[in-house]
TrEMBL record:
Protein name: VWFA domain-containing protein
Origin: domain of life: Eukaryota
PANTHER family recorded: VON WILLEBRAND FACTOR A DOMAIN-CONTAINING PROTEIN 3A (PTHR46478)
Domain VWFA, residue spans: 187-274
Pfam family of the protein (one): VWA_3
Matches recorded under InterPro entries: VWF_A
Length: 284
C-alpha cells in the first residue's frame, strides 16, 4: 500500500472506533463525519491535474531574483572601477572564465572507437592510457550542442566586457593620465617652455582641472601634493595636504593662474624633489 491509501485507512479506522465505543451510548449526539474526500486525499507531486502556482507569487519571485542580480552587477561594476587592469583581468581573463582552447578540448568526448579501445584498459586501472592519448590524440572529439552554445555565449560576453572596459578606460582623464590608484597622491607637472608652448598650456590646464574633478577628489584620495618643474621646482605646499574643499580650491587656483612656462626641463630635479616625500604615489 502506498502512503496515501495507508493514511486514509488510518483515518477511517479511527472514525469507526469512535462511533462504536465513545458515542454508542449517546445516540442523540450526532457525529459529524467529513464527507469531503479532498480533506484526506494525498496529493502526489507527480500529478498532472494539480493547480498551477499563483502567477502573482511567481512574478514577485522573478522580480526579486532579477533585482538581486542587478544589485550584484552594480556592486561588481563599482568594484571594477577601483581595480587596475591587471587586477580586473585576474577575474575576467579567458583563463579565469574557463574559455581557453585547452578548456574547450577538455569538455569534448572521445569517439566511440576510442572508447571501445581504451575502456577495458581503464577498467583494470591502466595508468598509461592518459599518456598514450596525449601522445596520439584523436583526430576529432564529440561535443553536445549545449556545451558549444554555453562556450560561445561565454566568449561573446567576455568580448562585450573587454570592449566596455576599454571604452571606459579611454573616457575622460583616464584616457590622458590613466587610472590613478592610491590614497596618497602627488602630482608633478612639467612646466617647461617646450611643454607649455604652441597652445599646450591651455589644454594642459583644462585636463588637469578635469583630473581633480574626476579622480583626485575627496571621494578618491586622502592626501595630495602638487609641484611643478621647469628650470626650478615650484611647490604649492611644503608637505602633502589632507584633501578637502579648501585644498582643492588652492590646487585649481594654482593650475589656472600660476602654472606658466618656466625655462628648460629639469626633470632630474623634479624627480629628486618628489622622491623624498614619504608614502606618495607620483603622477607625472
Amino acid at each position: 500500500l502506498n502512503c496515501g491509501t495507508h493514511f486514509v485507512f488510518q483515518v477511517e479506522g479511527l472514525q469507526l472506533f469512535l462511533q462504536q465505543s465513545n458515542f454508542r451510548e449517546s445516540p442523540q449526539r450526532d457525529v459529524s463525519k467529513c464527507t469531503n474526500p479532498e480533506h484526506f486525499k494525498w496529493i502526489s507531486s507527480n500529478r498532472t491535474d494539480r493547480k498551477t502556482p499563483d502567477q502573482f507569487t511567481k512574478t514577485k519571485l522573478e522580480h526579486h531574483y532579477q533585482l538581486a542580480k542587478v544589485r550584484s552587477n552594480d556592486l561588481r561594476a563599482d568594484e571594477a572601477t577601483k581595480q587596475t587592469t591587471e587586477e580586473w583581468l585576474a577575474n575576467h581573463s579567458l583563463e579565469a572564465l574557463g574559455l581557453t582552447m585547452e578548456q574547450l578540448i577538455s569538455l569534448g568526448k572521445l569517439p566511440p572507437q576510442h572508447v571501445e579501445k581504451y575502456s577495458e584498459r581503464v577498467g583494470i586501472g591502466d595508468g598509461n592510457v592518459l599518456a598514450e592519448l596525449k601522445q596520439f590524440p584523436p583526430s576529432s572529439l564529440i561535443y553536445d550542442l549545449q556545451t558549444i552554445i554555453e562556450f560561445e555565449c561565454g566568449l561573446y560576453t567576455a568580448i562585450s566586457d573587454y570592449t566596455a572596459r576599454i571604452k571606459w578606460l579611454m573616457q575622460g582623464t583616464r584616457g590622458i593620465f590613466g587610472l590613478i590608484r592610491g590614497h596618497h597622491v602627488g602630482v608633478l607637472i612639467d612646466s617647461s617652455n617646450t611643454n607649455l608652448a604652441y597652445g599646450r598650456e591651455r589644454s594642459l590646464r583644462r585636463n588637469l582641472l578635469q583630473l581633480f574633478e574626476e579622480q583626485l577628489n575627496e571621494k578618491q584620495i586622502q592626501t595630495l601634493y602638487l609641484a611643478s618643474y621647469g628650470t626650478r621646482v615650484h611647490t604649492l605646499w611644503p608637505c602633502p595636504m589632507q584633501i578637502n574643499e579648501r585644498v582643492l580650491d588652492e590646487v585649481k587656483t594654482f593650475v589656472s593662474t600660476q602654472l606658466k612656462p618656466d625655462g628648460s626641463t629639469n626633470l632630474l630635479a623634479g624627480i629628486k624633489h618628489a622622491s623624498v616625500l614619504p608614502q606618495i604615489s607620483m603622477t607625472h
